[in-house]
């Protein structure tokens, strides 16, 4: 049972018919593309225009991640333009404006529009979801935790020289997948975790993979899924062989890694960054086959028949155009997002914002 109440967990919860743009970054990225289109067509006006937005912020975020590349270029020209405008104004009023004020504003602007990548960690209790989350966020291993705490955390990362706000939902299902909508409609990528010393936790993964495969099929979007065998440090108690892990991953067409939350930080970081890369790849593929700004129909999730995940790198298919069946993304606002400064944040990393965990003892 999930401790915090989320919309997906409430059977009476019904999605509103329509939602508007929830993501200012997307709004801006969309505007950028419009502006680009208009410019390429020889028109000078720049604006958002009447852009039909799709039903899914997840979908939008995918597009936005790719569009962010274009956005960065525009940001640079905007920065120059702002600087020029500020210089013009300061000479008009005879009062020089500090360059810092401009660069701070640009920095704030940059942070507000950094692309997001939402990753949901799934798995039976005790598989190490919280430990992996904490390791990724703080480089530390925890041994005490609140097993009922379900929260979402964020860390600004740089993956392949491109900044990204990685948001991690550390789920807290008691015994298998329950009320899955809260993460299905939120995440861009999923990590399904088992403990290599616990056969039952491995069997539990299949339940999650079944849910994900149905979601992927119904949403017609190939969300990346990573199967992770955790607790590699206690190899001597291993109950699940690497071959078994690999075989399950192959069956469901997902990625596979073995890690340890209490060993190398780099290995844990690598799998999170890999998830970001996969999300970017999917976004690129999706954009290449799907016209921008077309709404997709989304079928509601049915948790019945099991279907394997589609093979990786298959091309996403187009949804037919129709009166959109808008669904509001179950908000993660119910989960607490706590932003603090940590030692990692104060290190030499360029982007120091780190949202840290509540309810954990960190040693
Ligand atoms: N040896 C070892 N222990 C680990 C590792 N990861 C987690 N643990 C321990 O396994 C136990 C469960 O870890 P959690 O991170 O709380 O597991 P969880 O999947 O979040 O479990 P719930 O919070 O109950 O959903 C804790 O005692 C951790 O200290 C690991 O890589 N190696």
From TrEMBL:
Top enzyme class: hydrolase
Protein name per the record: small monomeric GTPase
Pfam families for this protein: Ras
Record keywords: GTP-binding, Hydrolase, Nucleotide-binding
Molecular function as annotated in GO: G protein activity; GTP binding
Catalysed reactions listed for this entry: GTP + H2O = GDP + phosphate + H(+)
Family: Belongs to the small GTPase superfamily. Ras family.
InterPro entries (alphabetical): P-loop_NTPase (IPR027417), Ras-related_GTPase (IPR051065), Small_GTP-bd (IPR005225), Small_GTPase (IPR001806)
Enzyme Commission number: 3.6.5.2
């Amino acid at each position: 049972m999930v401790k915090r109440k989320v919309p997906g967990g409430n059977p009476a919860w019904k999605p509103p018919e329509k939602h508007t743009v929830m993501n200012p970054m997307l709004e801006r990225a969309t505007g950028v593309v419009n502006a680009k289109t208009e410019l390429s067509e020889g028109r000078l006006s720049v604006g958002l225009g009447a852009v039909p937005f799709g039903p899914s912020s997840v979908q939008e975020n995918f597009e936005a991640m790719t569009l962010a590349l274009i956005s960065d270029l525009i940001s640079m020209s905007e920065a120059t333009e702002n600087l020029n405008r500020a210089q013009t104004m300061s000479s008009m009023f005879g009062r020089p404006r500090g360059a810092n004020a401009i660069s701070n504003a640009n920095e704030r602007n940059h942070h507000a529009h950094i692309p997001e990548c939402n990753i949901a960690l799934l798995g039976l209790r005790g598989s190490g979801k919280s430990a992996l989350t904490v390791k990724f966020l703080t480089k530390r291993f925890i041994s005490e935790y609140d097993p009922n705490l379900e929260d979402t955390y964020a860390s600004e990362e740089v993956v392949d020289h491109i900044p990204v706000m990685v948001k991690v939902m550390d789920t807290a299902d008691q015994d298998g997948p329950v009320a899955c909508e809260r993460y299905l409609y939120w995440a861009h990528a999923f990590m399904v975790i088992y403990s290599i010393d616990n056969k039952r936790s491995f069997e539990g993964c299949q339940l999650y993979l079944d849910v994900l495969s149905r979601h992927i099929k119904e949403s017609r979007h190939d969300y990346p899924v990573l199967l992770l065998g955790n607790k590699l440090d206690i190899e001597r108690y291993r109950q699940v062989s690497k071959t078994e892990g690999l075989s399950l991953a192959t069956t469901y067409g997902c990625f596979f890694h073995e890690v340890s939350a209490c060993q190398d930080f780099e290995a844990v970081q690598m799998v999170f960054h890999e998830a970001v890369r996969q999300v970017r790849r999917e976004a690129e593929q999706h954009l290449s086959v799907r016209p921008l700004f077309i709404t997709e129909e989304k079928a509601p999730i049915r948790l019945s028949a099991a279907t394997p995940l589609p093979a990786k790198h298959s091309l996403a298919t187009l949804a037919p155009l129709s009166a959109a069946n808008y669904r509001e993304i179950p908000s993660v606002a119910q989960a607490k997002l706590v932003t603090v400064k940590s030692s990692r944040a104060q290190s030499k990393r360029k982007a120091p914002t780190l949202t840290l965990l509540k309810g954990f003892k960190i040693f």
